[in-house]
Amino acid sequence: MGKGDKKTKRGKINRGTFGVRRPRIKKKPPIETKINVGNKAQPKL
């Protein structure tokens, strides 16, 4: 079990693939989009 093993984390790193043992890290959206920086609240008419 090591670099040549398809089912281990080290084997996934060596092959450059992803799977259950080594899932992809998802990028989080920037905080500015969540809190709407620069967008002022519109007054109700």
UniProtKB/TrEMBL annotation:
- Keywords, in A-Z order: Ribonucleoprotein, Ribosomal protein
Q: Which domain of life is it from?
A: Bacteria
Q: Name one GO cellular component term.
A: ribosome
Compositional bias (Basic residues): 1-13
Keyword Ribonucleoprotein part of the UniProt annotation: yes
Transmembrane regions listed in the UniProt entry: none
Q: Where is this region: Disordered?
A: 1-30
Family, per entry = Belongs to the bacterial ribosomal protein bTHX family.
| Protein name in UniProt | 30S ribosomal protein THX
Q: Which organism is it from?
A: Gelatiniphilus marinus
Organism classification:
Bacteria, Pseudomonadati, Bacteroidota, Flavobacteriia, Flavobacteriales
